[in-house]
Design a protein that fits this description.
Helices cover about 65% and strands about 0% of the residues. It starts with a helix and ends with a helix. The chain is mainly alpha-helical. The longest helix is centred in the last third of the chain and has 30 residues, at about 225-255. The chain is built from twelve helices and no strands. Helix 3 (about 65-95) packs across helix 7 (about 180-185).
């Protein structure tokens, strides 16, 4: 049975979501022509919260099955949070004039962009022999990627349409994986004292079990609904932290002039609701705001 604590927290969460989503979608509309990492991450955060808002409507024991969809949506957004935080640590070094021994903010930024491009440009010989493969269409896709992301390609390596990924500067070993993010944050932990990134990894790991079928995914179906709500709300708490970091990067790195104040204020109110250990709403309040 859903406890009164989580029933009230979910109720108030949806009230705060209303303003956050209205403002977030307004900002997305203002910048809908921007093709940029941080604009895209911001959109993904807002779309995640909108999906969660729909899934927690009337959420109770009878609708507990929605936890599967909730988990998959939150897993993606928690990884976005960790990616945002990862880039932010390199940007902090860049602003401080520190050149990392292994990498730099600009290099890590390019690695992030390169990963999916490499996957798109990599087609196995087996796949090339299927009826779904069209070499002419593939070559056009290669040209599009090359023309839009020239800085990610090594100009000393001629573009080979049979293996175009070989011309990229960064290889598979350079991908920004969760393991690499964890190593970076652990090494940077003295500067992240107010950020519980270990909790984020824990939640990400739990939701990964939902996403991939196995013994744990079956066991998680038996989790108490109140624990499901607790994990979900703390995930939202950290994701809104990611939104705040993303807004800072939009302002500093992209020069975005949108007004984020109202949305960020509402996020602070929401975080307070999630953080408090005791919470209660009167019947009159819920009747008025239902």
């Amino acid at each position: 049975m859903l406890s009164e604590l989580y029933e009230d927290k979910l109720f108030q969460t949806r009230i705060h979501f209303k303003t956050i989503l209205e403002e977030g979608l307004r900002i997305i509309k203002e910048n809908n022509k921007e093709l940029n990492v941080y604009h895209s991450l911001f959109r993904r955060y807002i779309y995640c919260l909108e999906s969660i808002n729909l899934l927690i409507t009337d959420f109770d024991v009878d609708k507990k099955y929605r936890e599967q969809s909730i988990a998959i949506v939150l897993r993606a957004s928690l990884l976005d949070y960790l990616t945002t935080l990862y880039l932010r640590t390199f940007l902090a070094e860049k602003k401080a004039g520190i050149k990392s021994l292994k990498s730099s903010y600009d290099e890590e930024f390019d690695k992030l962009l390169s990963e999916q491009i490499r996957r798109i440009l990599t087609v196995s010989n087996k796949d090339k022999n299927t009826s779904a493969y069209n070499h002419e269409r593939f070559c056009k896709s290669v040209d599009t990627m090359y023309n839009n992301f020239r800085t990610l390609f090594d100009k000393s390596k001629p573009l080979d349409y049979e293996k175009p990924a070989n011309s990229l500067k960064y290889k598979r070993r350079d991908d920004i994986s969760p393991i690499k993010i964890r190593e970076r944050l652990d090494n940077f932990s003295k500067n992240l004292k107010s950020i519980d990134y270990l909790k984020v990894f824990s939640l990400y790991d739990i939701y990964s079990k939902y996403d991939h079928f196995g013994v744990m995914s079956m066991l998680l179906e038996q989790m108490d609904i109140n624990e499901v709500c607790d994990n979900m709300l703390w995930s939202v708490f950290h994701i809104t932290d990611g939104i705040s970091f993303c807004v800072d990067l939009l302002k500093d790195e992209v020069g975005c002039n949108s007004d984020f104040e109202k949305m960020l204020n509402e996020i602070d109110y929401l975080r307070g609701v999630i953080y408090t250990k005791t919470y209660w709403l009167s019947k009159e309040y819920k009747e008025k705001h239902k």
